[in-house]
Design a protein that fits this description.
Blueprint (H helix, E strand, L loop, with lengths): L3 E9 L4 H16 L4 E8 L6 E8 L2 H9 L1 H10 L3 E9 L4
Antiparallel strand pairs: 1-3, 1-4, 2-3
Length: about 100
């Protein structure tokens, strides 16, 4: 399968920025150890500090699917659900 990329954006509810930041930082290490991960970088929007952006690259759609089902991602989703105002995940493929 072809390599894929992901842009995942999470916007914290007002007052929950640091809780969300800590939770997101907590999934970076375990994810970087997963099979099939090529890049997994967390960023914070300079102009809108409630917005966090993951830039990811995966060997395949299957590797991404396994990531979504991993224990640390499931635990993160449960813990952070009340802190997120908006989330968006875009899976893309490189064309140039």
């Amino acid at each position: 399968m072809a390599e894929i990329a992901v842009v995942a954006i999470s916007v914290a509810k007002p007052g929950h920025e640091e809780l969300l930041r800590e939770a997101l930082e907590g999934i970076v290490g375990p994810t970087r150890k997963e099979a099939g991960v090529l890049q997994y970088d967390l960023h914070r929007d300079v102009q809108e500090p409630r917005r966090f952006v993951f830039v990811e690259r995966w060997e395949s759609q299957d590797a991404l699917a396994a990531h979504a089902q991993s224990a640390h991602i499931q635990a993160y989703k449960k813990a952070a659900a009340d802190w997120i105002e908006h989330a968006e995940i875009r899976v893309v493929s490189k064309i140039a």
